[in-house]
């Protein structure tokens, strides 16, 4: 956000709740995302991330509370809002029997976007060589990249991505990071759910960690790690491990003893924060 510019919220969520029988999928969530901000939503399976995103996108009616996007209520679905948001769902859905080029050109036409601009997006997600291939013949990762391109083809102001890199190989994932960083740098607001801690640390200005339908924390990755107050592990070349809460003093001592060669210092990470808040038990 430009210096001196007043803070404007692109998304304002207040008391958002969704219940299915005895399951409180989203439980009284209040959350704000600033204009031009990149926010990552983390949480175990079943934490409520996708349900929360779908209510903010206007795809699912909340039981109570409200979601306002770009100053407009997300529900009931507002035709004036739809051209200004881009949505990539967890499960890709395409028109039958169309090629990758025909798919994205169809999405573009729905928004009045020229075909040439749609073709540019195929290049940006590395699918030019697959432009004439029918979608059902694309790999899972290629379908994921096409889904992301279709969500972005109309240059929306706010972008919602639900686990966008889940099916991508490491190279494609890094390339998508560059693409998303560029979108955010151009002033767009980006909200994504992810299971990758390194993805959230690299891309997100702030991170919200959810569990059991509630947002437990919402802050910058650095602030969350600082708040963990985790001990630092210092690994020496001979394999000895020193655990300390005063790493500066230990490093100084090792320097005096001329034992710094090969030393590795491991501080707390966002993953440590995540596990501290949500536990380590397996989630189906």
UniProtKB/TrEMBL annotation:
SUPFAM superfamilies from the UniProt entry: P-loop containing nucleoside triphosphate hydrolases (SSF52540)
Domain of life: Bacteria
Topology in the lipid bilayer: Peripheral membrane protein
GO cellular component: plasma membrane
Subcellular location: Cell membrane
Keyword Membrane: yes
GO BP field: response to antibiotic
Chief location bin: membrane
Molecular function GO labels: ATP binding; ATP hydrolysis activity
Classification via Pfam families: ABC_tran
Keyword vocabulary terms for this entry: Antibiotic resistance, ATP-binding, Cell membrane, Membrane, Nucleotide-binding, Translocase, Transport
Domain ABC transporter intervals: 11-237
Protein name: ATP-binding cassette domain-containing protein
